[in-house]
Amino acid sequence: MFEEASLRLALWWRSRSSGVTSHLARRSYPRSRWTPSVGLIRIGAVQMRPRSLESARQFADHAYEMTRLAVREGAELVVFPDHVTLPLLSIVPGLATTLAEHASLDEALAALGPGDEHTSSESGVDLTDVVALATPAIRRVYAATFSTLARRFGVHIAAGSAMLAERDGRVLAVCHLFGPQGRLLMEQAKTHLSPLERRWGLATSDRLTVASTPLGRLALAGSMEASYFEPFRLMALQGADIALVSAADIGPPTPWRPMRGLWARCQEAGVFGVQSALVGDAFGLEFAGPAAVYAPIELTPRGDGVLAVAEQGDADEVVLADLDIGALRRLRHDRGDRRNAEAIGRYLPDLYARPWPWPEVLATAEPHLHRPATPIPPPPDAPAPMDGEA
Amino acid sequence: MSRSTKCAKIEQSRFAPIANRGEEASTSANVVRAAALRLGLDTFADETAMARAMAGRLQALVQEGVRLAVYPGLYGLSLAGPWPPDMPWQQIVRGHRHLVEAMRMVGSRAARTARVYLVPGSVLLPGAEGRLVEWTALFGPDGTLLGEQIATQPDPTLADKGLGRTIAPIDTPFGPVGLLAGADADVPDVARILTLQGARLLVAVRAPAAPYASMRAMAGMWQVVQQTQTFGLESGLVGMAAGAVRDGKAGIFAPGEMTPGDSGFLARPGYFVGHGAVTAALDLDALEAVRARRPLARHLNAALYRRNAPAFGVAPAGAARTEDASDV
After folding, report:
1. Structure pTM?
2. Of A337, A390, B168, B300, which is the most buried if we count CB atoms within 10 A?
3. Is the pLDDT confidence value at A166 over 50?
4. Which residue in the set B104, B193, B198 is minimally distant from A347, CB to CB?
């Protein structure tokens, strides 16, 4: 009991908001060198390597450097990567040393002690247990850092995701959007998880919202959402103009991988897509970019759906692009809703309601064109109806 | 007898057969070699000539081991020619009220002659209230009609088209096959419905209006295959048809993990834009292994979709009218 109280006290001291805000108050906040064009907004997608930290101030410093880089070039909206708070686990007393002594996060957790039957590592503590302990501290540092940077630079910041424990015990990866007054405008927990996140024991949300801002209607997501058209359909139907996707993809990059994700979703849903990226090796994981900005191909100069991509694969960088929200809305208006929702509605709601595993082939009682195999008769003399025939 | 000399020629595949990554090492019997064709419309005097020409074109592919071949979208309009230059194409099509029976016969005979599973392309047919619907079908190597499909999604290039409302895969010995006609490949809901009903192979018969750049094409079947983890075949019509210049492409797709360089293209170097066919071997066991390793469908967030059910299928006001299949 005393040990836990000491631990929490130490965590509180290391994460106190005043430490971060007073530290950031001593930094300079230069103005942009860019004059905004009418109707365009400039966004900055952050690609960054996670750094080993010894203090919350170092976390704030890294976020400050990336934000300053983006703002200096005129960014009005800065998007940070997924799991941007992962390095903050180092402020948990004892964990920094353990992490330094082991090649991976899994190994470090395993070394922390015996777990139980719910533990993801064979012997050790669960990452969700560590997150539950550290959530108040992570939340303080994360909010103080990005709220201060948004306010001092006068920009919107999509602060990437942070693993946070809920009161009901679930741990969610939650993306946050801060406005230029430093206020929290929106929280969005991930609705789809990567294999790694599932292994870590994270849970998903079943809610997806869009925020109205002076820059346009903004939606937040993780990179796994971009593997599915469904969440982007929901964003588009809520009027989202820009999907801000915080990514921390694992594995070697290929030029095709982004095409399977956010690029494709931008084409389907008719939104701009801004993808930040965690890159480089950390915690025994190999993160890969690139950070990039995508758009419907009609709105890209080369007709390829790409507005900007990081030049380097594994270095700190800010990818900048100018977005024409008016042009996007005109395009969407011209496109309209091209779906035959009635035909789709005959199947999808029912299919989504069925539990995994999905049936191999559903029997259907309704008449349709898929008929049992029958030999083809000779050509008839008179026209016959194609369906419903005897 | 065909009045077209070019269609009687057998079109050779312009690519050496390229298959799944590691195909050469595969000992699985569950491998199907498939071909997607890219052609212009031909002109045939009758069904017999068309069936013979189609089967002849497949002969070389069958010798390569092809068991499934896919003709382009609207290729069935080859039976409606020659096209008088001054007559509206809609009027020409409506004048051929037997096209569906003719295409059933053509598909059956061509499949039986070539001994392949065959999708003979698609054709526009007069439906109820004069609206045209786009029909396609799959035939077995014995000429059996295995299943039919009417395009379900509106096509911007074919205004006032009637729409089907049935979306169901067709059983074959190599598993359920989903047919996507016209713009169905551009609406991801259709592929999702087909794959959740068990389809592992999606076949798109297309005749997209020009310009149809590669990036535009990738926003259709290529990416649908990536998110549904299936095999995909896309055939494409080129040249003038149904009032527009068509610029289809042919391609064979698979999840990135199964393809050289993660490209998602089974047949290299990507889209086939020549005149002929592209072929690849589809290793269905390898596909299942990929799906098991990275089960995207398993992690669909059904609770989220149910909460927002109207986004996935309630017809909005003013939506396109749907064609009852029995109206055709």
Report:
1. 0.88
2. B168
3. yes
4. B193
**C-alpha to C-alpha distance for B130 and B90, rounded to whole angstroms:** 10
Confidence class of residue B12 from pLDDT cuts 50, 70 and 90? very low
What is the total count of domains within chain A? 1
User: Phi, psi at residue B76, to the nearest 5°?
Assistant: -60, -20
Neighbour-count burial of B212, counting CB atoms closer than 10 A to its CB (0-12 exposed, 13-18 middle, 19+ buried): buried
What would the two tokens of residue A10 be? 């130490």
The residue range of the domain holding A102 is: 2-343
Record: contact A340-B300, CB cut-off 8 A: no
**Between A and B, how many residue pairs show a Cβ–Cβ distance under 8 A?**
248
Amino acid residing at A53: L
Domain boundaries, chain B: 6-21+28-294
Q: Of A18-22, B64-68, B110-114, where does mean pLDDT reach its minimum? A: A18-22
Residue A200 in domain: yes
Of A352, A360, A368, the CB nearest to B168: A368
A351 within a domain of the structure (yes/no): no
CA distance B72 to B122: 7
pLDDT in tens, A110-155: 887 765 555 555 556 888 988 998 999 999 999 999 999 999 999 9
Q: What is the pLDDT of residues B178-200, one digit of tens each?
A: 999 999 999 999 999 999 999 99
Query: Are A376 and B104 in contact (CB < 8 Å)?
Result: yes
Of B143, B166, B192, the CB nearest to A369: B166
* CA distance linking residue B120 with residue A64, whole number of Å: 61
Q: What is the CATH number of the domain that holds A15?
A: 3.60.110.10
Chain A's closest residue to B259, CA to CA, is: A256
What pLDDT band is residue A2 in, cutting at 50, 70 and 90?
low
User: What span, in angstroms and rounded, lies between the C-alpha atoms of B286 and B212?
Assistant: 31
Query: Sheet holding A249-250: strands in order across?
Result: A249-250, A285-288, A280-282
Residue A20 belongs to a domain: yes
DSSP single-letter state for residue A115: -
In the predicted model, what is the mean pLDDT of chain A? 86
Strand A280-282 to B244-247 pairing: unpaired
* Burial status of residue A329 (CB atoms within 10 A of its CB: 0-12, 13-18, 19 or more): middle
Structure tokens at A151: 């306010």
Count CB neighbours of A98 within 10 A.
18
Position A118 scores a pLDDT of: 52
Matching CATH number, B6-21+28-294, of 3.40.190.150, 3.40.50.720, 3.60.110.10, 3.80.30.20:
3.60.110.10
Residue A345 and residue B314 in contact, taking contact as beta carbons nearer than 8 Å: yes
Q: Is residue A386 part of a domain?
A: no
- Residues present in chain B in total: 328
CA–CA dist A180, A156 (Å, integer): 5
Tokens encoding B79: 């039976």
